[in-house]
Amino acid sequence: MASSNHSSVAEFTLQSLSENPQVQIFIFSLFLGFFIVAFTGNSLIVIVISLNPGLHTPMYFFLINLALMDILSASTVVPKLLQSLMTKNTISYGGCIAQIYFLTWCLGAELLLFTVMAYDRYVAICQPLHYSTIISKAACCLMASAVWAISGTNATIHIIFIVHLFFCGPNVIDHFFCEIPPLLPLSCSSTYVNNIMVIMAHIFFAVFNFLLILVSYGFIISSILKIRTKEGKKRAFSTCSSHLIVIAMYYCPTIYIYIVPGLNQTLKDGKVASLFYTIVTPALNPVIYSLRNQDVKIALKKLCPFLGNNWPFGKLI
User: Fold this and answer.
1) For residue 13, which phi and psi values (nearest 5 degrees)?
2) Among 82, 142, 92, 84, which Cα is nearest to 116's?
3) Closest CA to 175 of 163, 184, 165
4) Residue of 121, 133, 298, 305 whose CA lies nearest to 220
């Protein structure tokens, strides 16, 4: 028995996405494509915003943080998933713990960041005269630091409780990658505290933050409706539309996984939904923000002039 992790299990076996070789090749190509788009797209957003002084505003500062979270999240899950498709679908005990840590960190950070971004839009639309004072550079750095620190602390606490569990077999995780819910049933020791921590984390990161976002956008919508001109309403809503789309893409599968199980959702459906927010969403985020934001498109064209006529989704401008 390894005394360092109190476990006799040296590795875990992950569920295979498919046993058909042709289907595996298709899934491999699909996930590889998503990973390339996610890594390249989010990296471009970080570089473009960092090099363009005109984009050094709170909204784009938070967008850089979101892009970094998407890069880390996709890099935590996809490479190992691709390896599992081509070779044996196993992961070491340490690798599983590391995957849970970074994935929990990223997912919690994104949920918190969505709330911060909603607050930023609330101040910009509902209190525009005080925006530069409330959302100052120092405030942005403080909020971003809090997002990373709180989510990192949450992930660390979960890992501390997990490494004290005893895993004596079986070692087959009923999922495509390591997450806390499918790992806990494999423990030979009590997971009562772990389950309590998971529930508390879901309440804080998912439910509480979602309610804060709803409140923020309630005030935002109310303010937009008070704008007299149609053009003014359109301009105000355009600053929030990308954020709303990303929130919907992220929260829909999250709610489906953690809320809908009580409505006879199958475990397989939940696992497929989890692939959406760990693989698909990181790839779509940069596409949504670049295609719907004229400032980002102009900055992208300045940085990469050849993209003007060769952008896969049409001309940038």
Assistant:
1) -105, 125
2) 142
3) 184
4) 121
- For helices 294-303 and 21-51, give the axis angle rounded to 10 degrees: 90
Token pair, residue 100, equals 């849970």
* Phi, psi of 167, rounded to the nearest 5 degrees: -110, 110
Plot region of 71 (φ>0 → left; ψ -120 to 50 → alpha; else → beta): alpha
Number of residues that this document lists for the chain: 317
Q: Which one, of 31, 30, 102, lies nearest residue 70 by Cα?
A: 102
Query: Cα–Cα distance between 111 and 79 in angstroms, integer?
Result: 23
pLDDT tens track, the chain, 317 positions: 444 445 578 889 998 877 788 888 999 999 999 999 999 989 988 998 898 888 888 988 999 999 999 999 999 999 999 988 888 788 999 999 999 999 999 999 999 999 999 999 999 888 989 999 999 999 999 999 999 999 999 999 999 999 999 998 788 998 889 989 889 999 998 999 999 998 899 889 888 998 999 999 899 888 888 877 777 777 777 777 777 888 877 777 666 665 554 444 445 556 777 788 888 889 888 888 766 667 777 777 776 665 555 544 444 43
Q: Which phi and psi angles does 47 have, rounded to 5°? A: -70, -45
Partner residues linked to 12 by β-bridges: 91
Residue matched to tokens 């006879």: 264
